[in-house]
């Protein structure tokens, strides 16, 4: 069965379109989202746009590749950008972003009480889902400033890429949930009535929670809730606004994956989730795809040639010349291994003596031993086996891609060839950007012949 051609993802029209204001690079961990986001940002900037790249990657490769000493919660301009555009980069500081929300939506005294609260410090530093929520919060802040033409987001390295979409709703639901509302009730009642309600109406619940969580922890939570009373509605409002921002026509999602079964399975799941949520998918970036400059040599032929070298079945030519066994151009037929020698069938052929046959066998064995230790032959056989392994890898990657495209034939794809090393400077990011924009398969990505 012949598969229909897969639509090609055209990256340049996407980043050149002034209506494209946000590009979100998402996918499983370890597939190259950070490098993809940085390369897209650099390419867009050098094509004339004012770009900021927001990364949540705890590694600092992005700063190093852009020639910046370090990244923090403030956009830093990248130097040595060609063209009329600008490139800025920043790394999400989760706690600092949370602090900024508090400082922006509370008066000085209440902000100080919240920032110094032990429960708040734990929540802002490592509560499940906080990083993903703060990434979306920072995205909303950047978009509201309207300072950049394009925002490129590198999503958090979550256990599941779907956490990125769920985080705004999850944290908003937590802060607006029944447990928080119950804890917040005494603060809303206020004064002695509030204390009476706390002591009587909540005595059973707080007693149980106090035993489970510790009295001091529960007190910290209640103090935090009282201080955050006026801000809970704001969290829900901003979460909803950010979610609508992700659904807006000016947003484009790029799913990044490696040509591996697990990564593409999660990519397929993400594609389906984006469609269900009505979020605009631009396409799939298939990263680290392997190729070969000698794809016409199949794995089977390469392995056969390696075995021939090892067993000395290939003609042992002198001086590097190639010949054909028993061809008229060859003055003498090549020597054969003793176990392959055959008695001549012509009636005029002389019979060899046992001694001469033995001498011939001994000579052939010694030649085989010398041949098997020939460094040139060993190297050639090793290279042939490496090529066979590469061709098997290419075939496996092709089958994996075919399964994805069969499930999602509508998804545009661009492929980025695997590089021999890590990207560590602007030149490397430009190379990745060129490969992203090329939108074609690496050389030799065809499946091997059966």
Task: Describe the structure concisely for a colleague.
The two termini are 14 Å apart. Helix 4 packs across helix 7 (130-145) and helix 9 packs across helix 12.
Distance between the termini: 14 Å
**Which architecture of one domain per CATH?**
3-Layer(aba) Sandwich
- Number of DSSP helices? 18
Taking pLDDT < 50 over at least 5 consecutive residues as the criterion, the unreliable ranges are 187-214, 315-357, 441-450
- If strands are numbered along the chain, what order do they take across the biggest sheet? 3-4-2-5-1-6-7-8
What is the number of beta strands? 8
Biggest sheet architecture: 8 strands, mixed
- The chain-level mean pLDDT equals 74
Series of H and E elements:
HEHEHEEHHHHEHHHHHHEHEHHHEH
> How large is the radius of gyration?
33 Å
Shape: elongated
Question: What is the third-level CATH name, the topology of one domain?
Answer: Rossmann fold
The CATH class of one domain:
Alpha Beta
CATH superfamily of one domain, please?
P-loop containing nucleotide triphosphate hydrolases
The helix content, as a percent range, equals: 40-55%
Which structural category do the helix and sheet elements fall into?
Answer: alpha/beta
Strand content: 5-15%
Pfam families: ArsA_ATPase (PF02374)
Protein name: ArsA family ATPase
InterPro entries: ArsA/GET3_ATPase-like, ATPase_ArsA/GET3, P-loop_NTPase
Organism: Streptomyces monticola
Structure description:
With 450 residues, this protein is α/β, with parallel strands linked by helices. The chain has a domain at 11-171 and 243-293 and 401-438: Rossmann fold. It is 53% helix and 10% strand. It contains 18 helices and 8 strands. The protein has helices at residues 11-16, 33-46, 61-65, 94-105, 108-115, 118-126, 130-145, 163-175, 178-189, 191-200, 203-213, 215-227, 232-247, 261-277, 299-311, 354-372, 375-407, 426-438, and strands spanning 22-26, 50-55, 76-77, 86-91, 150-154, 251-257, 281-289, 413-417. Strands 3-4-2-5-1-6-7-8 form an 8-stranded mixed beta sheet, sandwiched between helices. Helix 14 links the parallel strand 6 (251-257) and strand 7 (281-289). Helix 4 (94-105) packs across helix 7 and helix 7 (130-145) packs across helix 13. It is elongated. The model is unreliable at 187-214, 315-357 and 441-450 (pLDDT under 50).
């Amino acid at each position: 069965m012949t598969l229909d051609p897969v639509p090609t993802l055209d990256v340049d029209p996407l980043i050149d379109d002034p209506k494209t204001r946000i590009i979100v690079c998402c996918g499983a961990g370890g597939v190259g989202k950070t490098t993809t986001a940085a390369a897209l940002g650099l390419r867009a900037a050098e094509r004339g746009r004012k770009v900021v790249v927001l990364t949540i990657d705890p590694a600092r490769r992005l700063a190093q590749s852009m020639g910046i000493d370090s990244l923090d919660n403030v956009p830093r301009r990248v130097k040595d950008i060609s063209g009329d555009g600008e490139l800025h980069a920043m790394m999400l500081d989760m706690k600092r972003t949370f602090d900024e929300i508090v400082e922006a939506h509370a008066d000085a005294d209440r902000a100080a009480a919240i920032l110094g609260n032990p429960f708040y410090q734990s929540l802002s530093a490592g509560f499940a889902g906080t990083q993903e929520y703060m990434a979306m919060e920072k995205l909303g802040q950047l978009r509201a400033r309207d300072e950049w033409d394009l925002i490129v987001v590198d999503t958090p390295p979550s256990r599941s890429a779907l956490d990125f979409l769920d985080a705004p709703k999850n944290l908003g639901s937590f802060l607006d949930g029944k447990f928080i509302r119950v804890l917040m009730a005494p603060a809303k009642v206020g004064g002695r009535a509030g204390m009476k309600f706390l002591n009587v109406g909540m005595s059973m619940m707080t007693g149980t929670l106090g035993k489970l969580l510790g009295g001091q922890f529960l007190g910290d939570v209640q103090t935090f809730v009282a201080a955050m009373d006026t801000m809970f509605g704001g969290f829900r409002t901003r979460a909803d606004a950010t979610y609508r921002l992700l659904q807006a026509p000016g947003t484009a999602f790029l799913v990044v994956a490696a040509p591996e079964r697990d990564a593409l399975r999660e990519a397929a799941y993400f594609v389906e989730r984006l469609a269900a949520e009505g979020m605009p998918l631009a396409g799939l970036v298939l990263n680290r795809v392997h190729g070969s400059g000698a794809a016409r040599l199949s794995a089977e032929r390469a392995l056969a040639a390696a075995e021939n070298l090892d067993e000395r079945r290939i003609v042992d030519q002198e001086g590097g010349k190639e010949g054909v066994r028993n061809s008229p151009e060859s003055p003498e037929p090549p020597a054969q291994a003793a176990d392959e020698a055959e008695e001549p069938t012509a009636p005029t052929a002389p019979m060899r003596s046992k001694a001469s046959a033995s001498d011939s066998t001994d000579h052939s064995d010694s030649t085989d031993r010398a041949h098997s230790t020939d460094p040139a032959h060993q190297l050639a056989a090793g290279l042939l086996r490496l090529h066979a392994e590469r061709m098997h890898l290419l075939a496996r990657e092709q089958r994996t891609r075919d399964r994805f495209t069969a499930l999602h034939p509508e998804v545009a794809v661009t492929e980025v060839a695997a590089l021999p090393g890590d990207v560590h400077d602007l030149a490397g990011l430009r190379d990745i950007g060129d490969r992203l924009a090329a939108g074609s398969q690496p050389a030799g990505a065809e499946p091997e012949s059966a």
